[in-house]
Design goal:
Layout lengths: L1 H12 L1 H25 L11 E6 L4 H13 L1 E3 L5 H9 L5 E5 L3 H6 L6 E4 L6 H20 L4 H11 L20 H7 L1 H20 L2 H9 L4 H30 L10 H25 L3 H18 L11 H7 L3 H14 L5 H34 L3
Parallel strand pairs: 1-2, 1-3
Antiparallel strand pairs: 3-4
Helix pairs in contact: 1-11, 2-9, 2-11, 3-7, 6-7, 8-15, 9-11, 9-12, 9-13, 11-12, 12-13, 12-15, 12-16, 15-16
């Protein structure tokens, strides 16, 4: 009991670290939730419009068609046909894209040899979007010309294609209308809070008990080594339960019940609990490895940020390369993200997907057990060291 109280005393001194990581995580989650409430997650999509200018040096029906299309899709500006003026407008970002329709463009179009010039802001990615719209319009006009239509009719029909509404019907094959709930994004980032809080807190506790004087006192005490380890494990489990409980309670408040309103609530709980167990084992191991607070800070950054980036927490798994994915499959955060993605995409998990879910849970638990076993072996060796 004395050893257990000692662990709790040191943990209490480091409550600020736990609250700091949880506060950062919760603060970011609250901001995301506020933005979702203001803009909406669905039904509010609008095309992003850029400031576009048209320099017409031909003055024909083709120029007028390009102008009308851009006026419909983008914000059309009027600027002077002067190289210095164009450069200034682009430099000050008054215009992002300038279309130049050269003289004789109509005749060139009728001979299938039309080229429209463009000037864009260097490094602008969005300008490719406008350029694709212009090229699509010109290609549609070429198709109509090849079909025997006049240039005027071709321009008219090509322009009308973009005005025709398209009926879209979303087929609900996943049980959630193809929409991920907000709390799923919240749970996706929980490993960072778990890892940061657990590593920085538990490692400091272990480092205190690694000190020579304390180690000697524990060796000479009447408390068996197994009981000392049990006291450490119980105290760490209490800390993990507190961190997990706070994070889960916050999402329940932010998202009006959150995961507990989902049909997969049990799987959400198991996945987050397995992740918390992994974080505790890594925190225990880090404390045995670290030799100083400065080293501990570096270890924490490597573990928390490294596992989150490679495991699909900060970067979606779909964006990771094949080589990175092969390495990431050995990490517990990868399987946490896989399970969280399944629970977010599917309201009803099929038996085949359940195999993946259980596989991910087992891998996370086995990873935690392996880290815990290595730490216990290292601790026994440290306790038997002379001096």
């Amino acid at each position: 009991m004395t050893v257990f109280k000692g662990y709790l005393l040191i943990i209490r001194r480091n409550l600020g670290t736990i609250l700091m990581y949880i506060s950062i995580f919760v603060g970011v989650a609250a901001m995301i939730q506020a933005m979702n409430q203001n803009t909406g997650t669905t039904g509010d999509f609008k095309n992003q419009q850029l400031n576009v200018a048209v320099i017409d040096r031909d003055g024909g029906v083709l120029s007028d068609t390009v102008r009308k299309m851009l006026e419909r899709e983008q914000k059309l500006l009027e600027i002077e046909d002067d190289e210095q003026v164009i450069q200034e407008e682009l430099f000050y970002h008054n215009a992002e894209y300038v279309v130049i329709i050269p003289e004789g463009a109509e005749n060139a179009m009728e001979n299938d040899n039309c080229t429209v010039q463009s000037i864009t802001t260097p490094g602008s990615v969005m300008s490719y979007y406008v350029e694709s719209q212009v090229n699509a319009l010109l290609n549609q006009i070429r198709v109509y010309l090849a079909g025997g239509f006049t240039l005027e009719k071709s321009c008219e029909r090509a322009l009308a294609l973009g005005e025709a509404p398209s009926a879209v019907t979303l087929i609900d094959v996943n049980g959630n209308a193809g929409i991920r709930e907000g709390y799923n994004y919240y749970t996706g980032y929980m490993p960072y809070a778990f890892l940061g809080a657990a590593v920085m807190t538990l490692s400091v506790v272990i480092m205190e008990f690694k000190k020579k004087d304390i180690r000697r006192r524990m060796m000479s005490s009447c408390v068996p080594f197994q009981h000392q380890n049990l006291a450490a494990v119980v105290s760490f489990v209490l800390v993990g339960a507190a961190i997990w409980g706070i994070c889960v309670a916050v999402q329940a408040v932010l998202y009006h019940g959150g995961i507990f309103t989902s049909g997969n609530a049990g799987l959400y709980v198991l996945n987050s609990a397995a992740c918390m167990l992994t974080a505790l084992s890594l925190g225990y191991l880090s404390g045995m490895i670290a030799g100083s607070p400065a080293a501990l800070s570096g270890i924490n950054n490597v573990i928390s940020l490294g596992l989150c980036f490679l495991g699909g927490v900060f970067v979606p798994l779909e964006m990771l390369g094949d080589g990175v994915k092969k390495i990431s499959q050995f990490l517990p955060t990868y399987w946490y993200s896989v399970i969280n993605g399944i629970l977010g995409d599917y309201e009803t998990v099929s038996p085949e997907m359940m195999k993946t879910v259980w596989k991910g849970l087992v891998i996370q638990v086995l990873f935690a057990v392996a880290c815990f076993g290595i730490t216990m072996a290292m601790r026994r060796m440290r306790m038997q060291e002379k001096g």
